[in-house]
Amino acid sequence: MADDTIKAAGCVLWRRSPFDGEVEICLVHRPKYDDWSHPKGKLKRGEDALVGAVREVEEETGYVAVPGAALPSLRYAVDGRPKEVRYWAAEATDGHFTPNREVDRILWLPPTAARNRLTQLRDRNLVDALLSTFHLA
User: Fold this and answer.
1) 65 Cα distance to chain centroid
2) Rounded CA gap, 86 and 74, in Å?
3) Per-residue pLDDT tens for 93-109?
4) What is the pLDDT of residues 60-69, one digit of tens each?
5) What share of residues in the chain are helix, strand, coil (percent, to 5)?
6) N- to C-terminal Cα distance for the chain?
7) Ramachandran region of residue 21, left (φ > 0), alpha (ψ -120 to 50) or beta?
8) Which of 21, 67, 68, 133 has a CA between 20 and 30 Å from the CA of residue 88?
C-alpha cells in the first residue's frame, strides 16, 4: 500500500524585538480556518522538507527565514489521512508582510502570548522547543 501521508513543513519564526531585544514569535492567521498557527505548508513533489519550510515561511509571512535547529515533527490526521509536519527554528531577517489569500494577518508576540494565541494545542509545544534551543526555558 502506498504511503498517503501528507508531507508538510514549516518554521517557528522568531526575531529580536526592535523595542526591547526580547524574542518574538511570528504567528499567521489563516482566514480559511480562522486560526492562528506557525507558518507551514505542503511540500511540493520531491521537495526537501527544509527547503519547503523556508519557502512556505516566505510565501506566508513575506520574511526570509534563516533556519536553525530542527524542532519536533507533528503528526495528526486530516480528513482521515495522516499528516506529518516537520519544523525548524528560524530567524526572520529581511522582509515585509503583505496580506494574501492564504494569510491575512501576522502577529509578532512574546513567547507566552504566542503560546496562548495558537489555536491548536499541538502547536504550543513548538514554542517551548524553540525556547529550549535558546536555553531560555
Assistant:
1) 11
2) 7
3) 999 999 999 999 999 99
4) 999 999 999 9
5) 25, 45, 30
6) 42
7) left
8) 21
Q: Which of 95, 88, 100, 91 is nearest to 24 (CA)?
A: 91
C-alpha cell at position 115? 503560546
Closest CA to 58 of 105, 6, 94, 18: 94
**Tell me: the pLDDT tens digits for 110-126?**
999 999 999 999 999 99
For the chain, domain boundaries = 6-133
Which CATH superfamily, name and number, covers 6-133?
Nucleoside Triphosphate Pyrophosphohydrolase (3.90.79.10)
CA 85 – CA 43 distance, rounded (Å): 9
